[in-house]
């Protein structure tokens, strides 16, 4: 279950409260530490913080001189929390705090320390809003204020301030929130100093419009890129569908690219973003190729463009053309780890495993300790039937849930070896304190735990694990009805629970989400899910037909690092045990 961008988790609309201790950098270290500790106590003591944390709908990000809270369940949550903090601060005048609030798209990421973090326009704008304030200010973006205006009890406390220039020339419209006792009614110093001549404002307006369009464009590239370059995230192969909560982001991506193209038709980045939009959002590969080729004329030295062309032609099943584009990208940027890794993935899809291993070795020469790349190397050894070599690669690794592909590859290794006892306690330990930032991947890990328990002879425990996994994942599927990975996970879980009708229905739904006619690379994944479900639930004819098709064409696999099924894996994988006495299976 590998991803084109593996470290990203999920794109959602979040409600962000960004705080900052004013004058922090000028304070002695001991006083800095004391103020941060006091701020943490105050924040964690608020009702809104505790409620959101209990519900698993809160991410807390320490920022050194403050704290950032990312709420997911309510627009009012960060506002109420800010007022609670403001009330508590009246008892601590030494703690001079300013706060900014904004709602917008964020994506979960795994940072360099291996911890869950959050990035995106929602975070960046909240910080810019906060930067406009002074001590005791609670500033809102105009977007948040307009939403709060719909509620009569907020209206008396919202006071529009106009535009404020934040860092790097960015301008944000801010609204001051204060009551008779809480907040700061004074106009921020930045806004007091913002008086400009009308003529100068008009000149800047044109420049700012272009600047904002370009910034929006770059955000669009990032957002669409997040959706594009992953085979694991919702829906699995992913970039091809957008979770329901991200529909607004899709519109922003389209609008940003079109605005930039209108202002500067020959801007290569704008043309590239338009190509991303057609590729990732509309799945219109022919039009995407046309825009990418146009962008290539404008940005001939950009390795990103042939790399993007390699991805889209791979989905079109144009394997030789995709190979040529990967080679072109690598000539322009020989140390582009993403392109090299994806080139290896293409070789793997074609079952050209020696070539894939050589590309992986190139990546490891650049990033020798990349756990995900090492796991992919081990997964290819598994596909070749070389379990001792795979075990040698995987043994030194200790991935957590944040490196889910590597973790699942280790679990799959134990299942292929029919010795899952060692991985069961580890999975239980991870799932005892699930990370909310991982979203539905916690439920997916429960599928793997259940499978390991089943192979280890712990049938009742496996059934209980799968029931819990099903309950968790069904709630996610309501919000992400076209998320292939969720559908596939639920199909396998219902298979394990013996619910044949539901498992087969989900399998057919998965095939409809990613038909092989639309996506030559990823369309094989739901066919593999069908083969597994049919094999386990007494449909050998359907299983054999699916397996015959899978082994005759290139394509991604459905598990772990997306390695396609091979004769070696069919011999090793316990899920195919019901077919072992079938002559047709033996022939495969």
In short, what is this structure?
With 588 residues, this protein is an alpha+beta fold. The chain has helices at 29-44, 47-54, 76-89, 121-131, 142-148, 189-192, 198-228, 247-263, 268-281, 285-298, 304-315, 319-332, 337-349, 353-366, 371-383, 387-394, 404-416, 423-432, 441-455, 459-479, 484-496, 500-513, 524-536, 540-552, 567-572, 583-587; strands at 8-21, 58-62, 67-71, 97-110, 116-119, 138-141, 158-165, 171-177. The chain is built from 26 helices and 8 strands.
Question: What would you note in describing this structure?
Answer:
With 588 residues, this protein is an alpha+beta fold. Among the domains are: 8-195, Nucleotide cyclase, GGDEF domain (Alpha-Beta Plaits, 2-Layer Sandwich), CATH 3.30.70.1230; 197-324, Serine Threonine Protein Phosphatase 5, Tetratricopeptide repeat (Alpha Horseshoe). The protein is 57% helix and 10% strand. The protein has helices at residues 29-44, 47-54, 76-89, 121-131, 142-148, 189-192, 198-228, 247-263, 268-281, 285-298, 304-315, 319-332, 337-349, 353-366, 371-383, 387-394, 404-416, 423-432, 441-455, 459-479, 484-496, 500-513, 524-536, 540-552, 567-572, 583-587, and strands at residues 8-21, 58-62, 67-71, 97-110, 116-119, 138-141, 158-165, 171-177. A hairpin with a 5-residue loop joins strand 4 and strand 5 (116-119).
